[in-house]
Structure formats: C-alpha cells, structure tokens
C-alpha cells in the first residue's frame, strides 16, 4: 500500500543505518527520546534499535496516553461505571489500567456495564441505541485523539442526543515535555517528535525545545524508515552544529497543523489549571476539560465523582521510566510482579507503554544478559 | 485495530491498539455520505469503517486519508505538506 510499503524497505533501512554510523562520534554516548508511545511500539516491533550503533540510546518518553492516567482518575471512572443506569465506554487498553481497587474490567466483571469502543463515535451510537440509559465516554489521548472527541460532542449536540456525556482526560504534549526538560536528572541530545500529534498541532509548538533548551527535534512518521531517518536527521544537526525543529513526516504533517482540528478543539475544550500525570505529578495547563459551552455534557458535572488523589504503588517505577531515567527492565517488579497479564503500573498495560514493549518484544532477556 | 462499520463492538488486535497511541491508519475512501459528514473507508485488509471527514473536507471516493479513532486527521495525496 502507498505510504506504507516503501517505508519498510529493508535495503533502504540498511542504507540509513549506515549513514547513522557515519554520523556518530566515537566515544560519545547519544541519548535520543522518542516522545510518542507509537514510536516506542514501532521501534521494538521492527527492531529499529538493533540497527543503531551501541552508543546511540533510545529513551522512551511520556507519550502513551494510557500510561499517564493516574490511579485516582481510574477510580473516578470506575465510580461512574457503577452509577445506576450508566453505560460506561472507553478505549480498549483503558479497561486494564489499575486503579486503587481494581480495573474497569474488574468493574465490568462485578456487574457494571463497561463497553470498549473504537472511537467516540461508537459511544455516541450506543447512546442513540439506548435512549433510556446514560452513556459516558472516558476520553483519553493527546491532541491526535482530542478532535475526535470534540467532533463527537458537537455531533451529539446537533443531533440532540441528551443521554451522552464525556469524562474528559485528554492531555496536551507540550507541558510535560517542558517539565521533562526542567528535570535535573535528564540528559538528552535530541527528540523524535510525535508525528500524529503534530498532524493536528503542527511542528511550530515544538520550537521552544531548540530555542529554550538547545535540543534538536525532528517530527517523525511511524514506519521503521521514518524513525531511522529522523535519528539520522538529529545526528546530522549535531554534527553540523544546528539546533532546530525539522519535519521528517512532510507527507502528512503541515508545519501549521490542521487548523480545522484546532478550531473545533478550542470550541469544545479549555485548559485545566493543572492535571495530574502518573509518575510526573501535577503539570500546569496540561489537561483539557469541556468548555463552558459544553459543560452540560461534562460527566464530572452530571454525576458525582470521588476525585480523590491516589499515590502510585511504591514498588512501581513508572515515573522514572516515563522520564527516561531508568530502562523498564531496571524496575524492581518488571517481568516478575508486573506483567502485561497482571500490570502494576500503566507502562505495562498499553502496547505503546515502554514496559509492555520491552516485555512483548523480548527485551527482557537480552537486556538482563547485558546487565 | 480495525473496525467493521457493521460491528458495534470492534476489538483490539493482539499486538496494537491504535486508539491508545499516537497512531494513524492510511485508508481508502470507498463511499462518501455528505449529509452525515461521514465516509466509508477501507484499510489495508479491506475492512470497512465509518470515518468522520469534517477535518479534511472535501473528500471523494478514491482519496487516501490518515485515520485516527475513526476521524480523518489528514489527506494523503502524495504531496509534501510540511515546511
């Protein structure tokens, strides 16, 4: 298929890998963070890191929207799911994220009507099929997914669907990146920027990274060649003494983003003063809630939610993993008490989570042997 | 993950869940429903999905779109759109 096959060509991949080898300085260790969980998944699915020189290290960032949802927020969702008459809808991986007293899947087993959906539009369709029930959609995701929720809420308003509401846990990408860059224990040489977030917001919002922190960022696609090429572009900037935002994913990402998507988001959402991220704590202006114009569709106002903050499990080191301070296999419970079947931390839940990617693609054994 | 337009409860594939990550799926427009602002689109496997097209209008049968969570977020026309 166009835009897929040519970006998985093994010969081209080896050529870019050779170029990467020619760009690295012997004796220097490079750390490049891929911000996005989708990139983490592709890197391990296609073995991209096996093509890199040993002194180029990939660090996995906080870009998995499931991984950053704190336990208290999961508890709020479970409380809503147990409300009489409620059909609670969410994306698949969200059902397995542990709260303080179990998961949404456990709530479903206990009798709550929890249903997995592919998109907010599916949740709206369920609402139209069950006009006597209240349907709540648990909205998660970065700016890639937020327009989908916004368009669905607009559609619900236009079609007069009054039994549909949204528990909004959408997050924005720039504030956590700024928080990471302010972290004293983080040393990075550059960033692989999130390609599909940039499809919506554009490449411009990332300009603060080279301007304020002196790190190059390359917006990248998700095929193996995209990721290899973006690493080569970062290294070339370092070799040439440049530091800027570049767009490797030009076939999809306009530098200014999708203006219609930004418009609908600004109509339906507004920034929360602060939002809690698992492992990263509270970050100002990093979460979205429904705007005043859509407040009647805000599930947190329509129903009562506990809103109690719950500390992360002590054994779990998702926070350090999300900050790139430790590798997943360095966590004390990785692969033992915490597995994809019985996750303790959210990084082990979603296939985009760094821990699940390591576990599912065999990085457990290899990295243990290296240690 | 793909979703059949006729299926109310699509399921995640075993290795990936596109709604959880910053993911996008190239899809081909098969039929446009202008009244509802939707298009029936086919993914690589031929599975059909109803896709919201408000962010990339106008679309026509035969167009290729990048789809995330049943919303087209970009048109794939082969041209470079970035700066």
Key terms for this structure?
heterodimer; A: 371 residues; alpha/beta; Rossmann fold; 3 domains; four-stranded parallel β-sheet; 13 strands; 18% strand; B: 83 residues; mainly beta; SH3 type barrels; five-stranded antiparallel β-sheet; 5 strands; 0% helix; disordered N terminus
Rg value of chain A: 21 Å
- Give the helix level of chain B as a range of percent: under 10%
In the CATH scheme, what's the topology name of the domain at 25-75 in chain B? SH3 type barrels
Number of helices of chain A: 15
Major sheet attributes of chain A: 5 strands, parallel
Low-confidence stretches of chain B: 1-15
**Main structural class of chain A:** alpha/beta
Radius of gyration of chain B: 12 Å
Mean pLDDT of chain A, nearest integer? 89
Domain tally of chain A: 3
| DSSP strand count of chain B | 5
What is the highest CATH level, the class of the largest domain in chain A? Alpha Beta
Amino-to-carboxy terminus distance of chain B: 31 Å
Order of helices and strands of chain B: EEEEE
Order of helices and strands of chain A: HEHEHEHEHEHEHEHHEHEHEEEEHHHH
Strand order of the largest sheet of chain A: 2-1-7-8-9
The average pLDDT of chain B is 76
What is the count of DSSP helices of chain B, taking H or I runs of 4+ residues? 0
State the total count of DSSP E strands of chain A: 13
Pair with the biggest interface: A-B, 63 and 39 residues
The CATH fourth-level homologous superfamily of the largest domain in chain A: HypD, alpha/beta domain 2
